[in-house]
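Section 5.1 Outputs to date
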Amino acid sequence: MNALATLIHYELWALVISLASIVGYQLIIGRINTKGLLYEDGHFSATRVQLLMFTLGGALFYLSLVFENPDPGTLPDVPNELLLILGGSHVLYHSARLASLIREKLGPLTSALRAGGSNNN
């Protein structure tokens, strides 16, 4: 039974490494389009960068907890601090996106109101 568990362990690692290699190769040759990943409405987006960095950092932190886990066969609990940091990062991104959408939708209205108000004076 131990040999079977060892075989499955190595097969899973081979699968993960194979999938990561395929995705990496597709990124390198350009079949996975990443153009505009850090841009929003044609402009560089700092909120997208912070969201990406916090998400990758949180994933790497949790992966380090998995490797340091003294109890094999189980996943460690996700720390509350990590959830708060990731949640705050997502709230910041979505708040900025909502503000951008509101400006986009209300921009013509406010321009029309300003133009109408200046005609009355």
